Amino acid sequence: MRRPDPGRRTLPAVNSPRIVATDLDGTLLTSDRTVSPRTRDALRLARAAGAVIVFVTARPPRAVREIAEQAGVTGTAICSNGAIVYDLDTDEIIESLPLDPGAARRAARALAEALPGVGLAVETGRGVLAEAAYTRRVPEDMPFYREVVSVLEEAEPFVKLLAHSPAHTADEMIAAVPATVKGLAEITQSGDGGLVEISAPGVTKAAALDRVCRAHGVPAGEVVAFGDMPNDLAVLTYAGLGYAMANAHETVLASVPRRTLSNDEHGVAAVLERLYG
């Protein structure tokens, strides 16, 4: 099967985009969750041409800063699916958009009824509060976990409600959420098995990216974006140039006409080299 040509443009495109917006897991990072030397060089090439690099990720701030150091990236990062705008240089959260507790309770009840045994956790921006039934554990995140009886009874504001079911896929879980609940929150997935992520209404990666672009005086047509999962789809359609990774979720591949190579084939680098080389 012929590999996609990362430089082939089937739609009108911009030259030398002023902002490079990229997802991390499954996109910029290889499967071992590192930034390859080729990708690091390509990011350096884009910066030398005057482009601003913006990470747009489901990860919380604490899981982004080390990657930014690997990649040689500074400035602003969009974290937690757009609920947080984070300053990589000062380690400060610039903007935080919490989820309404009432909407979170309704979503949690709906998931519990549709998917018995589902485990819940919440992301606060600086840590994770998890119920005992939430068995998903990210090793590097363990110092930031705190087990609680009920995440929805905690007073601490949170930016994401996390629902995990080892017995279901994320697609199955999202399909099980009633339409009435979907109207109260943004519900998406970023690719980790049976994990669904719930944010406040209107909180998406694309909405946060639009605010960052406006702050830089850059229109959407001068953005190149990369992603692989449904939570990236709004960003890929927002940008003047949106590229789906070859390893992307089927929904993304069906919706985004531009393709690049997979994350393990340095697909982001392949496009940046052509755009800025």
Automatic annotation (TrEMBL):
<protein>
    <recommendedName>
        <fullName>Cof subfamily of IIB subfamily of haloacid dehalogenase superfamily/HAD-superfamily hydrolase, subfamily IIB</fullName>
    </recommendedName>
</protein>
<dbReference type="InterPro" id="IPR000150">
    <property type="entry name" value="Cof"/>
</dbReference>
<dbReference type="GO" id="GO:0005829">
    <property type="term" value="C:cytosol"/>
</dbReference>
<dbReference type="InterPro" id="IPR006379">
    <property type="entry name" value="HAD-SF_hydro_IIB"/>
</dbReference>
<dbReference type="InterPro" id="IPR036412">
    <property type="entry name" value="HAD-like_sf"/>
</dbReference>
<dbReference type="GO" id="GO:0016791">
    <property type="term" value="F:phosphatase activity"/>
</dbReference>
<dbReference type="Pfam" id="PF08282">
    <property type="entry name" value="Hydrolase_3"/>
</dbReference>
<dbReference type="GO" id="GO:0000287">
    <property type="term" value="F:magnesium ion binding"/>
</dbReference>
<dbReference type="InterPro" id="IPR023214">
    <property type="entry name" value="HAD_sf"/>
</dbReference>
